[in-house]
Structures are given as C-alpha cells and as structure tokens.
Specification:
Layout: H1 6-14, E1 16-22, E2 29-36, H2 37-61, H3 74-109
Antiparallel strand pairs: 1-2
Length: 131
C-alpha cells in the first residue's frame, strides 16, 4: 500500500474530474463540469459560510431576535429587575407578618408558656439633698 504524503494528498486534491449531466432518453449531454476535490471543497465551504452569515444577519437585523429565549430589550430587563426586587421585598414582608400572626395566635390560645423574668435587678439608691 502506498504511503500518503503531503505531496500525494495535495496532488489528489488537484486531480481533475468531469461531472456530466445527461438526458436519460436521448443520452445527450446537457451540462458538463470540470471539477477537482479542492474546488468542490472551496465551493461547499463558501456556501456554508454564506448561509451562516445570512442566518446571523436575519436574526440580528430583524425582529426575529425577540423570539430567542432569554433575549430582550433593555427596558424589559430593567422592568424585570425592578419586579424581582419588589417581589423579594413583598415575600420578606409576608414572612414577617406570618411570624407575627403565629406568635399572637400562640399567645391567645395559650399554647406557648409565658416565661417570667425573675432575675433580681440591682437598684441604686438616690440620695435626697436638703437644700
């Protein structure tokens, strides 16, 4: 088996091939193309790059971009941040109110034992001056 060298590979890319399109009924040649592997590769690469560029341009320069998940304009992003902050503060306020109401309910029903502070506090005596 022959070794593949850089020279061999480049030579195979440049070999000429003929692509013939024929009429099936009359066997008449309709179109003939002289191609090489390199020219086919370049043509397909060019078509791919053009299609990708056209698709990107279509998305960037038309309103289609708003249908992409996570994409939006700046006003919507600012509104979303404000609503998120407001929602978080409302959730916190609801938690505090729930804790307060639970405490009041426990005190009214008597389920929470009341702890009486029985620690003696030192009281300083004030001197009364007779002026």
């Amino acid at each position: 088996m022959a070794k593949l060298t850089d020279n061999n590979t480049f030579q195979r890319l440049q070999n000429k091939y003929r692509l013939v399109v024929m009429n099936d009924d009359t066997y008449e040649e309709v179109v003939t193309f002289k191609l090489s592997r390199l020219s086919v590769y370049v043509a397909l690469s060019t078509v791919f790059v053009l299609l990708v560029g056209f698709t990107i341009a279509l998305i960037v320069f038309t309103p289609i971009k708003y249908y992409i998940p996570g994409y939006g304009n700046r006003e919507n992003a600012a509104e979303l941040r404000a609503l998120k902050t407001r929602t978080d503060s409302l959730e916190t306020a609801i938690q505090y109110k729930d804790q307060y109401l639970d405490g009041i309910k426990k005190v009214l029903t008597g389920t929470t034992p009341i702890k009486i502070d029985t620690v003696a506090l030192p009281v300083k005596k004030h001197e009364v001056s007779n002026d």
